[in-house]
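[audit] Reproducing an earlier prediction to check determinism. Same input, same settings, fresh worker. If the tokens differ from the archived copy the diff job will pick it up downstream; this log only records the rerun itself.
[audit] input (96 residues):
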Amino acid sequence: MLNPIGVETGLGSSDLSLLTLGPLVLIGLGAFLAQRIQTRIGARRATPIALCCIMAGSAARLISTAAVWSLQLCLLALAVPPVVKMPRALAAKLRG
């Protein structure tokens, strides 16, 4: 999985290792928190809370992705019409 990412982005092996290190560190830190929550409230109550956290994270990722795509489409919608309507003489001048 890392080879296509490295080829596509031009990242070296040390940079790619940092990509895998981040999630592993967060999982490790989350394990300590999860253990404390489970011992305090029990596994039956902790499971729905964990599922709600996963749903909230997925929703936040979906919303942020949709916001970025919407912004890109807005910028594209504003930038393309003037280029399409540009006179041919001006377009030739800009090309060099």
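[audit] rerun output stored. Observation attached for the diff report: The chain has four helices and no strands.
[audit] end
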